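Homework help board

Subject: predicted structure for assignment chain

Our instructor gave us this sequence and asked us to write out the predicted structure in token form, then describe one feature. I got the tokens but I'm not sure how to describe them. Can anyone check?
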Amino acid sequence: MVLPRAAERRPPGPDAPVRLGIDPETLAVLEAARREHGEVVAFRTPGGRPAWFVNDPAEVRQLLVRRHGKYRKGPGFERVKMLLGNGLIVSDGAVWRRARTMIQPAFSRGNVHRLIGLMVERTLARRERWRAVAEAGGTLDVTQETSDFALELILRAIFGADYERRILTEGENPFAFLSRDPVRDLRVVLKMRELRSLMLEIVTARRASSPADEHYDFLSAYLAARDKAGNPFSDEELLDELANLIVAGYETSAGTLNWAWYLLAGHPDAQRAVAAEGRAQLAETGRIDEQRVAALTGTQAVLEETLRLYPPVWLFTRRVSEDDALAGFDIPAGADLYLSPYVLHRTETYWPDPERFDPARFAPAETGKGERAYFPFSLGPRRCLGEYFAFLEMKIHLGILTQEFAMSRTDAQFPVLDLGINLRSRFDILLKPELTRDP
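My token output:
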């Protein structure tokens, strides 16, 4: 039943229309509105569409987990769709459900564990590069280093041997612009579209070949995927999903590792603890397996605390599909909802002394973490499928490299937030590596 307008129960909020987007101004608006009006705030946008900001963790969980079917993707995804097509990140409804069901087996723990050797190999390659810098007394552009590492890893995890056979045919990585230029504008959209022909060549060759007796990769899993009717992805669908996996799989890990190194460089005790844990579990790189990586509980806590402070997606949006009730208020169909992990993770009500870096918040002995005011990878059915892959990759990276390099900051200035679709550092983070043991 649609309530008469006068009878609607509306949350408090500013009277004047407010423009909301995915930018620093919106963050300032949301933070000010929360301070003045509370954890659920109603806005009117200049176009007249109602918009709500929801910062109550119980209500966020209701939206994303228990009642997700009443909400679809909200404003801001138009830009993402231009870049990624209609893949898993952007799609809704039956298209999303079909793709999610087909892709999910690729990210089972058993399959992801098959990529641990690749993660170790690429981390060791980065170690050799960093040794040369440390021995020369130089500095590392950690923002660029983590970007290059994460991009190469996800491309190799997707394309396997085709990464070197078909992608590096001219000695250069044609996807390198993703890690070299953080701007996500029309130029990047056009470059990604140009690369679809290269990806299609690889897909076509894979479809025509007999099942390869090679190491597991995500492309082989995506090609083998079937929906309930037994149908595979079409070429267009597959290219969209590969674009989603490349961009999301790289940016999440690159950004988190960038901030993790920054935080560790400013907290030597935490850095030494990660190094000690790495030496205990990962010193023999040829024996690294899922059990050894799982034992890196302190490193896991460091990463979770990093994600609390700097969640990769700082703002989620949803659009209400049908009239609903939320936090005791009536929310009309068509309203836009704004949910910010960045704001929620820094709300004192839920996180005492929220600006302080404290991995102990995520110590294994802590209880009730599942109900915490915490959702860096979203929640519910749309929770990131690649979350486990990302944590494995990042724990291996930190666990191996902290054993050998003690990082210190070269600049006392904070690198400033870049609040685009992803939360980045506006300025590259430069750190000085010092060898802690002989190579």
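Reply (TA_rk): Your tokens look well-formed. For the description, you could write something like this. DSSP finds 17 helices and twelve strands in the chain. That's the kind of observation they're looking for.
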